């Protein structure tokens, strides 16, 4: 018998080993965003890994804000991050902040000073980085390195009490200026920063550095598996060193490859710049790779999870194809989205043998996968719109939509025949005169089949709506390859937003789905918050078809 066993990823292997060997009884992970921006698709991967592993192994996940840089952080981001995590369908155990531990971290710093493991350095930032040496050359000791613990303690307390200006002094660990791992060349522990903190206000004017914060926070919370992205692997030895030096709970760090997507940027700094420069309408502009952006665009949490499942967890950086994400969105919406007919580029059709003034209401399924399920009522009248592209005057042999003398079925309803093409003085086609075949009504007698079916909207009942059709925000596939003499903003796609108007069947305006809907034969769209009583606005989520097939 063939068994469908999915191979474990490397993190699952580690966790299963740790549980089996008794190294840990249960697992506790954490998601550690810095509240200096909105979450993006890369964070979705991190969320799926951290929360997903905890769920799979009956453990828990803490939400811990990494808020040690008051200048860039804000409660707006704190709240938005929580909203996004909830939207993804994850529930954290404890909501915590690195700033909750400032007192404890400060105590540990004093302890290291008293043990001769840390000193106050008066060098400038420039002198410090110069003194650090290079990968090939050892660094040099700071002239302030041999201060006594008493003097260091006094100076550090004065730093804390606001006696010094920013940059005047820092606290450094006293390790080894010739250490082969540059991270160990007396790393900075504290810096002076006069900025109000979103939680601690003006209590502190010194703030701990990342390396002196992250591992200790993990340890205080007894995080068993601290999972982060690959660029932190060089920090791991230092992470372990602080835990060992302070003799505290041994959390461990593991690294996975960050998510990179074609045609997409995921640096919060650059995304913030796009917002601040007004190059997008905000963090939730539907072209942004932020979770609030893709949500407004109509992507679902289910699709994002499907995508994260498909890309898996690897230890090697790679550029993922955004088409795979779009494919997941289509998969999810295809199964769930309600269907409506919308004509974007209208061509008028007059049905010459239709009884004057008659309206016939057709009961059409909201989802073809459930023909007996919920339906909507669609009005058929003697004057309709079809897509201009669904008619061709000099049609090639293989064109199965409408052509002079040809027949097509109007979706859910009758077969019509094009009898006459009406043009204006310049020769532009303004209208088609057609006849309908009353016997071709579905369910009435024998089914007659024609090759083409097109969507349509009654001109009398149709509602005008606004469409925001989106394309990729950038037109360079690998945004890590922006040449030196260029800026990433040079690659903004000028056609990433095209606004159009369209005609919709009336039921669309009554739709109350929580997710995107399908405009039959064209794509998925979602109603936007910019809609007013006068005009309903729809964002394009993704087109209906694509030649892309995942491997
Ligand atoms: P950015 O570089 O966009 O500012 P960051 O790493 O500074 O991102 P954090 O808020 O510190 O953002 O990240 C929170 C968590 O999400 C971290 O564990 C981080 O490693 C992870 N993360 C951030 N970007 C990605 C990504 N592209 N792919 C996977 N995980 C990511
Ligand atoms: Mg960060």
Helix content: 25-40%
| Strand fraction | 15-25%
- According to CATH, what is the topology of the largest domain? Rossmann fold
Helical stretch tally: 12
CATH class of the largest domain: Alpha Beta
Class based on secondary structure composition and strand pairing = alpha/beta
Find the CATH superfamily of the largest domain: HUPs
Number of domains: 3
Instruction: Extract low-pLDDT stretches.
Output: none
Mean pLDDT across all residues, rounded? Answer: 96
Largest sheet: 7 strands, mixed
The small molecules bound here are: adenosine-5'-triphosphate, magnesium ion
Q: Please give the order of strands in the largest beta sheet.
A: 12-25-26-27-23-24-13
CATH architecture of the largest domain: 3-Layer(aba) Sandwich
The first-to-last residue Cα distance is: 25 Å
Structure, explained:
The protein is of the alpha/beta class. The protein has 3 domains: 10-256, HUPs (Rossmann fold); 268-338 and 465-543, Glutamyl-tRNA Synthetase, domain 2; 342-455, Ribosomal Protein L25, Chain P, CATH 2.40.240. It contains 12 helices and 27 strands. Strands 12-25-26-27-23-24-13 form a 7-stranded mixed sheet. Helix 2 packs across helix 11 (301-311) and helix 11 packs across helix 12 (322-336). The two termini are 25 Å apart.
In short:
It is built from twelve helices and 27 strands. By secondary structure, the chain is α/β, with parallel strands linked by helices.
What layout of secondary structure does this protein have?
Elements (H helix, E strand, L loop, with lengths): L9 H12 L6 E4 L9 H16 L3 E6 L9 H13 L7 E3 L4 H13 L3 E4 L3 H7 L17 H12 L9 E4 L14 E5 L13 E3 L1 H12 L3 E5 L6 H11 L5 E5 L2 E3 L6 H9 L14 H7 L3 H11 L6 E3 L1 H15 L2 E2 L1 E2 L2 E6 L8 E6 L9 E6 L2 E5 L19 E4 L4 E9 L5 E9 L15 E2 L1 E3 L4 E8 L26 E8 L12 E3 L3 E5 L9 E7 L8
Parallel strand pairs: 1-2, 2-3, 8-9, 10-11, 12-25, 14-20, 18-21, 23-27
Antiparallel strand pairs: 4-5, 5-6, 6-7, 13-24, 14-17, 15-16, 17-22, 18-19, 19-20, 23-24, 25-26, 26-27
Helix pairs in contact: 2-11, 7-8, 11-12
The protein binds adenosine-5'-triphosphate (ATP) and magnesium ion (MG).
Adenosine-5'-triphosphate binds next to helix 2 and strand 8.
